[in-house]
Amino acid sequence: MKTPPTLMGRSDPVFDRLLRSPHKERLSDYLALLKPLDAQGRYLPFDALRHRWAPGLDSTLCWALVKKARAAQYSRLLPLGEPARWLQLLLTPLAQKAISAVDRQATTEVLEYMTGQIGERAHFSYWLNDLIEDEAISSSQLEGAATTTRVAKDMLKRHRLPRTPDERMVIGNFKMMNVAWEQRYEPLSVELIATLHRVGVEGIDDSQYSPGAFRSNDDVVVQDGEGNTVHSPPPAAGLVSRLQALAKWMNQSHNNPHQADYLHPLIKAIALHFVLGYEHPFRDGNGRVARALFYWFMFKNDFSAFRYIAISVLLRNAPLKYGRSYLNTEADDLDLTYFIEFQCSVVLRAVGSFTEAYRKSLDDAQQFDCWLRDSGFLDRLTEKQRTLFQVARSGMAKEFTAVNASENLGCSYRMASATLNGLVALKLFERRKMGREWVFFLRPQQAT
């Protein structure tokens, strides 16, 4: 066996410093830091790591060692900004866990299996439609919409016209997510990005948002809650060309695991999310478009369960961490790993919540069947009445109209109306006139 050759060449300044006093006396402490993750497996930025290093160590030298270990494992993605810098990443154990989770629990094939397990139960459609609404609502709330989730869901389920700019924001996000689903087989283009923005913000405050129009000057910045500028996007000059380059990269196939440039669709979708936020191509509404494009790319790659997985519900609950993941990436030589780490932690929890909700839906269906048999209602209710009654008892929907019942049951307005009135006749539902339509509710004594 041959021995390795002696390496020649210019010495490394980091190790030169380590071998000089006073650092060489703590050489083992320093070398223990030559790894990308901390002792607990976390990928932390300098500001967090500097408080965890042993007293007496030179923080600049410690950071140089951490960066040296990370740089050895970086993968380059695409050039970003003006002047261009490479967006780069390191695939961490957390990211690999998230990849494994979406591969096992969020594919189109898995979703078809789940619906097959439910069978022909129409109540599952109600549950899925309810989940579709969650992303549109929470994404709007993340951007400052003051509408409560209950009021927003009532508006979407009853097809009520929005009354405030905040409600119009929810409707816009709902439409934008539908476009992302409908256009999932289209290639990414500048036109698609503009379309998503136009659909998402049109009619809210057109002078503020300029629907579908890219910014033409450099007066757009990102500020924190105290009004401090935390991000200045690349210049408007060349914006369209940079978006075209992004589209070209996104449209390239990176799905061959035998190729050196393989990149899992989840990681690529998160990169797209980041780049849209970084470029900030619109005067307002950039975050909503970035998240919609994340979903669009997951849909495109046959992760259809993401139609019912609301990441913004979790992002809304941690807006500071969401913003900090952007800033850490920008501050540390466009190291996308910080953003990927945070997004993957969110995806893991969101996928887990979806899977748990599915299992609960199965359990509820079985318990409802037992209740029907014991109560004597099994033979007195039609299949459609059973569905509406089960949905009401489970709390998936509080109010029903003939319009939304016909959509969820897949029947005519007349049939839906007859189904609801039949439940009233059986004293299971009650109804009251709200505006120009009848709204149906579960009778209080039937809620348990």
What keyword list fits this structure?
448 residues; Arc Repressor Mutant, subunit A; Fic-like fold; single chain; mainly alpha; two-stranded antiparallel ribbon
Q: Taking Cα atoms only, what radius of gyration do you get, to the nearest Å?
A: 26 Å
What gross morphology would you assign?
Answer: elongated
Q: What is the average per-residue confidence, as pLDDT, rounded to a whole number?
A: 89
- The separation of the N and C termini measures 76 Å
Number of strands: 6
As laid out across the biggest beta sheet, the strand order is: 1-2
Number of helices: 20
Helix-and-strand structural type: mainly alpha
- What fold name goes in the CATH topology slot of the domain at 124-350? Fic-like fold
Taking the sheet with the most strands, its summary is: 2 strands, antiparallel
What letter string, H or E per element, gives the SSE order? HHHHEEHHHHHHHEEHHHHHHHHHEE
Q: Name the helicity range.
A: 55-70%
